[in-house]
């Protein structure tokens, strides 16, 4: 088990006894420990660099008060900066659109899009009292269409059938038309994912976005993806104006550094965390709690 930032710094603190301030002299060594802790939590390297630069600036000149040591003070500064970086923005789903509000789900295959679509449907039904329709635009995997049907039923929402021989844009438009005529408040559009970034896929989802003009475009990303999450996030950000992030598989044993990387690269708020395979395993993202998890 990797040591936590608190462990790392408390070792350092012993060598700093009597130093009441964070100074140019001691900050270098402390930043090295912060860097290691973030890398161990799987935050991507360029993101770590930016983050360290911001923390260093805040730490230098920060008054170390009372019984705190410079190390403890730094943990506080890092924690606060992590939470601030990950926590800005609105957490709940934006439905401020002429109904039906369309929500587009994007992400790699296996990230948890279909599961999250159903979880969100349930959330919107129970917490926001909305009438919700789902549709799958994944024409490559008939099994994915069936999977969405099953989980939509579990969520208590309605499912619009799609045919694998149709184009994703046509499927989404047909679902939108159905949603309008039957007074649905929300249409959740699940999309195809690939195992790796793929240009054709990116164009397809960008076209889909242009056709259905979603009020929310959510990027679903696996917290266990670690360092690679930054590349995935970059590619999706280039293709789509993302409005939010859902971080899945937070019940796994990753320290969740992907959250920081994805947030920094996309600029979009992290709205939800997936915490189990079950339909009710979705939580509103809590930046402060997550900062604690990254630092260990
Ligand atoms: P998609 O290909 O992006 O649609 O991904 P799926 O929704 O099919 O999910 C892929 C796998 O991840 C499935 O086995 C899901 O049960 C699982 N999964 C999705 N979200 C979570 C989560 O938050 N926690 C856990 N433990 N598993 C999840």
UniProtKB/TrEMBL annotation:
Q: What is its EC number?
A: 3.6.5.4
Localization terms from the record: Cytoplasm
Q: What is known of its domains?
A: Composed of three domains: the N-terminal N domain, which is responsible for interactions with the ribosome, the central G domain, which binds GTP, and the C-terminal M domain, which binds the RNA and the signal sequence of the RNC.
Tell me the domain of life: Bacteria
- Domain spans labelled SRP54-type proteins GTP-binding: 269-282
Q: What is the name of the protein in this document?
A: Signal recognition particle protein
Binding of GTP, residues:
107-114, 190-194, 248-251
Provide the alphabetized UniProt keywords: Cytoplasm, GTP-binding, Hydrolase, Nucleotide-binding, Ribonucleoprotein, RNA-binding, Signal recognition particle
Q: Could you tell me the Gene Ontology terms of the biological process aspect for this record?
A: SRP-dependent cotranslational protein targeting to membrane
* Gene (name only): ffh
Which GO MF terms does the UniProt record name?
7S RNA binding; GTP binding; GTPase activity
- Residues included from the entire protein: 1 to 296 of 453
Does the entry feature the keyword Cytoplasm, yes or no?
yes
Similarity remark:
Belongs to the GTP-binding SRP family. SRP54 subfamily.
Reactions the enzyme catalyzes: GTP + H2O = GDP + phosphate + H(+)
Q: Which organism is it from?
A: Piscinibacter terrae
Q: What does this protein do?
A: Involved in targeting and insertion of nascent membrane proteins into the cytoplasmic membrane. Binds to the hydrophobic signal sequence of the ribosome-nascent chain (RNC) as it emerges from the ribosomes. The SRP-RNC complex is then targeted to the cytoplasmic membrane where it interacts with the SRP receptor FtsY. Interaction with FtsY leads to the transfer of the RNC complex to the Sec translocase for insertion into the membrane, the hydrolysis of GTP by both Ffh and FtsY, and the dissociation of the SRP-FtsY complex into the individual components.
